[in-house]
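Self-study notes.
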Amino acid sequence: MADDNGILDINRKSFENEIRALTEVRHRNIVKLHGYCSRNGAMYLVYEYMERGSLAKVLYAEEGSKKLDWARRVKIVQGVAHALSYLHHDCNPPIVHRDISANNILLDSEFEPRISDFGHRKTARSWFV
């Protein structure tokens, strides 16, 4: 079923869940949501800008993977583990991400990881600022 703007209920719920999750959590390894908009059938999320993009992009790019030495890889794993521990043990109720992947881990200029994508469908558009 779609609402007045033509947005499917499942997409609207995913969009709202993402907003709710990211406005209630505060952790250095979880992406910051700066804003959102739903208008004329389009849904937008505005995140903090992550200079290096996704971990997948860095891992699978020839030049990027050379910069990803073992010390940086361990730093990324530790950051993701801290964020997941926070979501599972320090949030009430606990938050389960459901889709941790290299595409949903973003990296800043210092390779500090941020978990993103807390359930929004591909029809929602994300902007990074």
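Second protein, same conventions, sequence then structure:
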Amino acid sequence: MTTPPAGVRTLLRLEGLAVLIAALLAYAQLGAGWGAFALLFLLPDLSLLGFLAGPRVGAAAYNAAHSYLGPVALLAAAALGEWPVALAVGLIWCAHIGFDRLLGFGLHGTSGFGATHLGRIGRADPW
């Protein structure tokens, strides 16, 4: 994956911050418990286990759990069906993705864990 220009990386990180703040404010208005938020916040990171099966499976699993498609679909279904638990889970999921983007963790390519759409993460390969 090619690294985007610094200005684009900054913009994507700021978008992550905006999503994180919006999700936190909406979650606070929902009145759901913060204990549930803490328990579920890191749940999408279980998708990292996919990398144990190789970079292609790992990237697919991680990207599925760290794309906004899933949580936005869940939020839409929750709003239409008036399902407050699904709404809370969707907001937590969005907050997690926003937090990851803020920290510079992007979607992964199949060339290895360190290659993301926001640039390289982790230590450089010494070989």
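Instructor comment on the second fold: The first strand starts at residue 115 and ends at 116.
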